Amino acid sequence: MKVWKFGDDVDTDQIVPGRYLTIYDTSELAKHAFEGVRPEFSAEVQEGDVVVAGRNFGCGSSREHAPLALLGAGIRVVVAGSFARIFFRNAVNTGLLPLVSPDTDTIPDGSAVVVDPHGGYIEVDGKRYVLEPVPAFLQKIVDAGGLVEYARGREEVEICTGSQ
């Protein structure tokens, strides 16, 4: 896994341009991820690579296409100094894990990376950086594959047990 590094204020139009908002297939959206800022991204990104960014990642519009494009590209985790609130929720709701670290500015592009959200760190080229803890309920939603799958699983439990 490697780091794809971005700076501050990466907006949803940079993640996936607005002209692709009619596409809902994640593999198709992935072909256009970061095409205006890192044209090599869609051709070179590998399953399990990690996007690392500065502050206010995902600002701009409230579209869910941005996290879907990242998921389609094989990104499962974004580590940023902070997230735009609506992107953060859209990420969780689609199954993309947004992680906050105050030290993203010192993480170099292209570095080898290991992410351990349960251990509370990201390790880059052997150096560990602290991650803010992920609330258990958010981790459960991401682990389920997003909010719809999480709700579907809870519904089945409630139907089977008769719980309301």
Structure in words:
Strands 1-2-3-4 form a 4-stranded parallel sheet. Strands 5-6-7 form a 3-stranded antiparallel sheet, with no helix packed on it. The protein has helices spanning 12-15, 26-30, 41-44, 65-72, 85-94, 136-144, 147-161; strands at residues 3-5, 50-53, 77-80, 97-100, 113-116, 121-124, 127-130. The relative contact order is 0.16. The protein has one domain (3-133): Alpha-Beta Barrel (Aconitase, domain 4), CATH 3.20.19.10. The mean pLDDT is 93. The chain is built from 7 helices and 7 strands. With 164 residues, the chain is an alpha/beta fold. The chain is globular.
Quick synopsis:
The chain is α/β, with parallel strands linked by helices and 164 residues long.
Keywords:
34% helix; Aconitase, domain 4; 3-stranded antiparallel β-sheet; alpha/beta; 7 helices; 4-stranded parallel β-sheet; 164 residues; single chain
Topology:
Elements (H helix, E strand, L loop, with lengths): L2 E3 L6 H4 L10 H5 L10 H4 L5 E4 L11 H8 L4 E4 L4 H10 L2 E4 L12 E4 L4 E4 L2 E4 L5 H9 L2 H15 L3
Parallel strand pairs: 1-2, 2-3, 3-4
Antiparallel strand pairs: 5-6, 6-7
Helix pairs in contact: 4-5, 6-7
The overall average pLDDT, rounded, is: 93
Give the end-to-end Cα distance, rounded to a whole number of Å.
Answer: 42 Å
Question: What's the tally of helices?
Answer: 7
Return the string of H and E elements.
EHHHEHEHEEEEHH
CATH H-level superfamily title: Aconitase, domain 4
CATH architecture: Alpha-Beta Barrel
Count of β-strands: 7
